Give the backbone structure.
Amino acid sequence: METKEDITFLYIKDDEKKILLDCLGYSVNKEGYIINAKTGDYHTCPITRERVPFKEASILPGSTLVINTTPLTISEYLLDYIE
């Protein structure tokens, strides 16, 4: 049986989050939503299929996924990670 490593979630400050998003090819528009830095298209959460506001965004550990931070999205991520 395969074992998984522990997942650690860290809080990062807004300026640190913006730097990390920039490294992933994203930026924040005037409305406060995460967008693709090259195209200007809104980033959509892969779980909720909704636009991701910067204030509610999480960048998941060990991945490049940017999601809305809600109990639903975190539990979906953990279920996928555990499987």
About this structure: DSSP finds two helices and four strands in the chain.
